[in-house]
Write a structure and sequence with these properties.
This protein has helices spanning 29-41, 57-65, 94-108, 127-139, 153-166, 189-196, 237-253, 257-267, 281-289, 297-306, 323-326, 335-340, and strands at residues 2-3, 10-11, 14-17, 46-48, 74-79, 113-118, 143-149, 171-175, 199-202, 273-276. The protein has 341 residues and is of the alpha/beta class. It has an 8-stranded parallel beta barrel with strand order 3-4-5-6-7-8-9-10, surrounded by 5 helices. Strands 1-2 form a two-stranded antiparallel ribbon. Helix 7 runs antiparallel to helix 10. It is globular, with a radius of gyration of 20 Å.
């Protein structure tokens, strides 16, 4: 067990992620419930979900599984993603936050959420608006702690300052992506989280499947019937080159690449928990078998030589990209101003 930042809550080093429970992964609800129960039996006490996973279906599965087990589990969910038609069924406004939490509580069959997280940055909503609404929900007893996911370091700092100056509850956790191939958070995110005492839940420690060994350089790409398409990052030659080197390192050390990747993610002193996302019971079983692995300095040094600290070998397709990069009008002066210059 590890302390979840400065909340006083203790959580397991593995957090059971549920994004693929339901029609986006495993549509068999009973099977998903059995996986949650198996994880709890093996000592995992941390479960992470989101309202947008399966558009409510996943939270319903988790709620069913936690019947009779609620007190054993540190339950985390997220809001912010679009939850239907209409301009106000998503985001981080007070209007939506208050509505979203009621939906999650109902689906999860509980009267409180241990950790309620902002799923993505919302550049169009003042962070004070969001923190104020979340503070009221904490005081109402509907949530115990608040956190964020995918926030840049500057926005984590801004949120801490706003909380201090306005007397609002602070974000207590951050959920960024982190893996052997995506180490960018070591540069700023993790030091900032350390500075403010935030717990860190890292998602995709297996790099969306790249670190399972299923995707190899110059090999046929496995069919991905679940998604119906092959994400670009699974065909990134730079990543595949690194995977080949990491596979060799894992084999020489007598480990599977999956176990090496998970042990790496949990070895960083500022990482609280690594989120696992099994789709089948076999996948869950394999992940749990590797939970006791620790890596020595010699292996960690060799990893650093393959993927240097603070380095991202290309982003994941699902990574957050800020408007400053996606909106051309924020990167270019208007054409008439450029012509005049």
């Amino acid at each position: 067990m590890r302390k979840l930042g400065q909340t006083g809550i203790e959580v397991s080093a593995y957090c059971l992620g549920t994004m693929v429970f339901g029609k986006m992964g495993n549509p068999n609800h009973d099977d998903c419930v059995r996986m949650i129960h198996r994880a709890l039996e093996e000592g995992v006490n941390f479960v992470d979900t989101a309202d947008v996973y399966g558009y409510s279906e996943t939270e319903e599965i988790v709620g069913k599984a936690l019947k009779g087990h609620r007190d054993e589990v540190v339950l985390a969910t997220k809001f912010n993603g679009p939850m239907g038609e209409g301009p106000n069924r998503g985001g981080s406004s007070r209007r939506w936050v208050v509505q979203a939490v009621e939906g999650s509580l109902k689906r999860l069959r509980t009267d409180y959420i241990d950790l309620y997280q902002i799923h993505h940055p919302d550049p169009y909503t003042d962070i004070e608006e969001t923190l104020s609404a979340l503070t009221d929900l904490v005081r109402a007893g509907k949530i115990r702690a608040i956190g964020s996911s995918n926030l840049p370091a500057s926005e984590i700092v801004e949120a801490q300052w706003v909380s201090q100056r306005r007397g609002l509850h602070r974000l207590r956790t951050e959920q960024p992506t982190y893996s052997l191939l995506n180490r960018g958070i070591e540069r700023e995110i993790l030091p900032v989280c350390h500075r403010y005492g935030l717990g860190v839940l890292v998602w995709s420690p297996l790099a969306m499947g790249l670190l399972t060994g299923r995707y190899r350089k110059n090999a046929p790409r496995p069919d991905n019937a679940r998604m119906g398409w092959v994400p670009r990052h699974l065909t990134d030659e730079r990543k595949l080159d690194a995977v080949e080197q990491l596979l060799t390192l894992a084999e020489e050390a007598g480990h599977s690449l999956t176990h090496l990747a998970m042990a790496f993610a949990t070895s960083h002193p500022d990482v609280t928990s690594a989120i696992i996302g099994p789709r089948t019971m076999d996948q869950l079983g394999d992940l749990l078998v590797g939970a006791t692995l620790t890596l020595g300095d010699d292996i960690l040094d060799k990893i650093d030589a393959i993927v240097p600290p603070g380095t991202d070998i290309g982003p994941l397709d699902v990574s957050y990209t800020p408007p400053s990069l996606t909106h051309t009008d924020l990167r270019r002066r208007p054409s008439h101003e450029r012509a005049a210059a």
